[in-house]
Design a protein that fits this description.
Elements: H1 14-28, H2 38-55, H3 62-78, H4 82-95, H5 103-118, H6 122-142, H7 150-169, H8 173-189, H9 196-212, H10 216-235, H11 245-277, H12 286-294, H13 331-349, H14 358-376, H15 382-402, H16 409-431, H17 437-459, H18 468-474, H19 476-492, H20 497-522, H21 531-554
Helix pairs in contact: 1-2, 2-3, 3-4, 3-5, 4-5, 5-6, 5-7, 6-7, 7-8, 8-9, 9-10, 9-11, 10-11, 11-13, 11-14, 13-14, 14-15, 15-16, 16-17, 16-19, 17-19, 19-20, 20-21
Length: 555
């Protein structure tokens, strides 16, 4: 881009031409790792001496100096001298206000944006990138007839990339994903050299965004595109392909993980809709209505996000499963989606094993458990419902022994909560048929397990080295739900009078404690929050004492 300077050099200044050619050559050198910036340091000195020579002339060479200062600032930043580079870029761009169409100006402004972003000044970073985006569009219109548009296209790719980054940091997921998608599209369109694994990773990130929007069609295109580029990575035997076997395996596992999550999310969405329509457990909230209205799959009006990668529907043949979605109306249809999700989650588990990938492995096991939960909504037989819930226990219970609480405290908290919930749900199924002591004993086993895991979850808030009240405030929803679950399980114990009496007494104590927790929380938050839980607790506090006294008289 410094080549743009030659048009501004007077014809009688051969020495300047020579200096600039030297600078150009030095900037193209790739130095050894031992002295990574040697050539750039030489370029910096040559640029500085050339600026001095030009300044010594009496003629107006402000544009010439502006270009050199922009290149000097960029080179400073390339050598990790950010502060002086930033100041130099500001001076250089100020001199080029009449020549904003120059590529060196655009690149300089991009570098200024990056420094702003690195300093957490996202607003100024965003403003700079919006300016460069506009300048790039103007230049593109002017360069349509030119053969060499690659420098401008490279700037455009980098601009989209930076915009994706800054909007991500600003928590604007929509804009961040949009610019990330533009980056990916332009890279494959221009056949620009890119890092395969990073492209795949970013495509899955965009797919995640569409998944959160319940746009299953576009999300599918993203993971199919990622899989297509992964196949190119495997096939590419050239020296430019720097991906190791380990990186290829990780990329493959991440794609399988995403596809497993994709089918899980679809089945869970269908579960929520089914429960809502049947008026079970889930309220038909405005959020759910919005979700149903936005649900999109198997559409014909969705544009190809990655037309330059060919027919992505053909890619699915290499996955072993056809990627098609349909409205789930019965157990068999739900099971079809379930098996697809399970297939890809299991393939991901082959890479993300407990030994070496603890966090990823735990996440996978939780996803697998959630998959069974989504299937459960379509199973009407109580016996098979219990079998499905026990599958969830088989996935999660071993983790309690395998995870070190010192290092995986948060993961264990989640698992305790889930295990308490699952055992509680199983007890509800068994409660229907508690007609003799044997059945009551089986029922109580799950009630007591739910109590055990609830107590373990709640006990973790008493860990040394943490502020208990602050920890509860940060996690108030889960804390109240689990404590209420504990009280309900105590209340639901069946059997001999003394056993029931003792557990009802415990239930009463916990219900009272929940009321205090809610009142304490509501002093600082929404006073109407947890109103349903509060009403239940108050009702139990009225009813339980009479029942406790009745049993006490019988003991």
């Amino acid at each position: 881009m410094i080549s743009e300077i030659f048009q501004f050099i007077p014809k009688d200044k051969d020495i300047w031409n020579e200096n600039l050619k030297d600078i150009q050559s030095l900037l193209e050198v790739v130095d050894d790792d031992s002295t990574p910036y040697a050539s750039k340091y030489k370029a910096i000195e040559t640029i500085k001496s050339t600026i001095i020579d030009i300044n010594n002339e009496n003629e107006d060479n402000e544009t010439l100096i502006g270009i050199l200062e922009c290149q000097l600032g960029i080179t400073y930043i390339d050598t990790e001298e950010e502060s002086i580079g930033f100041d130099t870029l500001l001076k250089g761009t100020e001199k080029l206000q009449e020549h904003k169409n120059l590529l060196i100006y655009i690149k300089a402004l991009q570098n200024i944006a990056v420094v702003h972003i690195n300093r957490n000044d996202f607003t100024n970073g965003e403003e700079c990138l919006l300016v460069t985006e506009s300048l790039i569009k103007e230049n593109r219109l002017k360069q349509q007839q030119q053969k060499d548009t690659k420098p401008l296209q490279s700037l455009e790719i980098m601009n989209y990339f930076y915009q994706a980054q800054v909007y991500g940091l600003m928590k604007n997921v929509k804009l961040s994903s949009g610019y990330c998608l533009k980056t990916l599209q332009l890279q494959v369109k221009l056949k620009e050299q890119f890092v395969y694994r990073e492209w795949c990773k970013n495509a899955l990130s965009v797919g995640d965004y569409y998944l959160d929007q319940f746009d299953f069609d576009r999300s599918k295109q993203c993971f199919l595109a990622s899989f297509q580029v992964y196949r190119q990575m495997i096939a590419d035997k050239s020296e430019s392909n720097e991906s190791s076997e380990e990186e290829q395996q990780e990329t493959e596992a991440n794609i399988y993980l995403f596809i497993g999550k994709y089918f899980l999310r679809f089945l869970d969405t269908q579960r929520a809709i089914s429960l809502a329509l049947n008026n079970q457990d889930v309220k038909v909230t405005e959020e759910l209505k919005t979700m149903v209205s936005q649900l999109r799959f198997q559409r014909t009006d969705v544009e190809d996000l990655f037309p330059d990668l060919g027919d992505l529907n053909q890619v699915s043949t290499h996955l072993g499963y056809k990627v098609d979605l349909f409205k789930v109306q019965n157990f068999e249809q739900a099971r079809d989606i379930f098996l697809k999700s399970q297939h890809f989650l299991n393939k991901a588990k082959k890479y993300y094993q407990l030994d070496g990938f603890v966090t990823e492995y735990v996440d996978l096991m939780e996803m697998h458990s959630d998959l069974y939960k989504s299937l459960l909504a379509f199973e009407g037989n109580p016996g098979r419902q219990v079998s499905i819930q026990k599958k969830r226990l088989e996935l999660l219970e071993p983790l309690v022994k395998e995870l070190n609480p010192q290092y995986y405290f948060s993961a264990l908290q989640t698992i305790y909560f889930r295990l308490a919930e699952i055992n509680g749900e199983i007890s509800k199924i068994y409660e229907i048929k508690c007609s003799d002591m044997r059945e009551i004993t089986v029922y109580n086993e799950f009630v007591f397990k739910s109590i055990q895991y609830s107590k373990q979850f709640l006990a973790n808030y008493n860990q040394k080295g943490q502020d208990k009240d602050a920890a509860i405030r940060d996690d108030i929803q889960a804390y109240i739900v689990c404590k209420l679950q504990l009280a309900i399980m105590y209340r639901n114990v069946k059997g001999m009078n003394k056993l029931v009496h003792d557990n009802l007494t415990m239930a009463l104590s916990v219900f009272k404690s929940v009321i205090k927790d809610i009142e304490d929380h509501n002093q600082y938050g929404d006073p109407t929050r947890f109103s349903t839980e509060m009403n239940l607790c108050k009702e139990m506090i009225k009813l339980l004492p009479e029942k406790i006294n009745f049993l006490a008289n019988k003991i």
